[in-house]
Structure formats: structure tokens, C-alpha cells
Amino acid sequence: MPENTNDEPVGNVLFIAMDKGIDSETGQLGYGYSPDNGRTFYVTNTIKGRKFRQEDADRLWKFLKPMIEKLVEEKFKNEFIDKVKEEISNDTSKKKSEEG
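RESULT FIELD:
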């Protein structure tokens, strides 16, 4: 269990958030949290910066998805739509000349 001097148990639950400890998965030292009373500890801040897990990305995706969809749509509209139209036009011209 991570060293914990400031947190006091509430009932049978010990709140461990932004406390120092060793990551249960990687063994990395840093500040983090424990969702299960100290059985596991997840480091989120290290000397090399913030550490993210797939679960973090999954939680953020619902906020990022609309922005990314908009950026992809604008990029497609601004950069690719003219090329697509040109390819369609070229393909149609080729078919007409072959038939004609």
C-alpha cells in the first residue's frame, strides 16, 4: 500500500488520490491513485510527465469524438473533395470517349 499520512479511512474506505506510490503494473514511482483501497496503485504523474492508460482515453473519447469528426470533415472538404471530383470527372470523360 502506498505511503499515506494525510488520508484517513472513512468507514472501510481509504481515499487515495494524488498520493505517492509505486505503480502496480509498471513499478514506476510517482503520484497517483488507488481505486480499491490500496490493493492496486496507478501512477498518473511521474518525473517524465503525465501518464495515461487506455481507460483514460476511453473516458475522454466521448468529449474528443465530436471535435475530431469536425476536423476530419473539414480536412476532407477542404483538401480532398476537389481531388475526388476531379477523379470522378476524369473517369466520366474516359467512359464517354470509350463509348463515343
